[in-house]
Design brief:
It is a single chain. This protein is mainly β and 187 residues long. The protein has 2 helices and 10 strands, in the order αβαβββββββββ. The strands form 2 sheets. Strands 1-2-3-4-5-6-7-10 form an 8-stranded antiparallel beta barrel. It has a two-stranded antiparallel sheet with strand order 8-9. 29% of the residues are buried.
């Protein structure tokens, strides 16, 4: 797990360095918040929980930015019937466009991205690892703190339904709402 995060952080930093020549304003965000699953069964087992992540935004033209990132949600819960411990891990990796409005010290933004979701659930009944595509939409407010540092307040919705390739397929709706804050560093 640590290896994956190391590779992801390195890739985001490398992308930031290689795209910095596109113009001033490349930004790297470290964020944290809460995730509220939209599926009632998922919510019953895992409730809500902490989500951590990172994002890279590269200006393309005007207020339009190429936007990429990843989030991590990991949580333990109890199975509905047997009350045995179950663990889940969801990692969406996304790429899309984000539009920043205005040029003042407080700037709202809207973004939409295609996302690839990595999902793993482990409990005494077995283990399931699946992945698939979905989408992520985000709205936020960037507040300049000082120099190249800003504060990001955001809310997002992500949607993805995964199905196993078995004779009796299982379905997992892993979407939901999340909101939180981030620290933005602009290059």
């Amino acid at each position: 797990m640590k290896r994956r995060w190391t590779i992801l952080v390195f890739a985001l930093m490398l992308a930031g360095m290689t795209t910095a020549s596109w113009g001033a304003g490349v930004s790297l965000t470290f964020k944290g918040g809460l995730f509220w699953p939209s599926d009632s069964v998922f919510r019953e087992v895992y409730k809500s929980g902490t989500v951590l992540g990172g994002e890279l935004a590269v200006p393309i033209a005007g207020g339009l930015h190429l936007w990429a990132g990843a989030e991590y949600f990991g949580k333990s819960g109890r199975l509905s019937v047997s009350q045995e411990v179950t663990k889940v891990r969801i990692i969406p990796v996304y790429l899309g466009l984000r539009f920043h409005f205005g040029k003042s010290a407080v700037r709202p933004y809207l973004g939409a991205a295609a996302a690839y979701f990595l999902f793993k659930e482990e409990n005494p009944l077995g283990s399931v690892s699946e992945s698939g595509f979905g989408f992520l939409g985000q709205a936020g407010l960037l507040v300049k703190v000082a120099g190249p540092v800003s504060f990001d307040l955001y809310g997002n919705y992500r949607a993805c339904t995964l199905r196993t390739d078995e004779p009796d397929p299982l379905e997992a709706k892993i979407g939901g709402f999340s909101g939180g804050a981030g620290l933005v560093f602009r290059f």
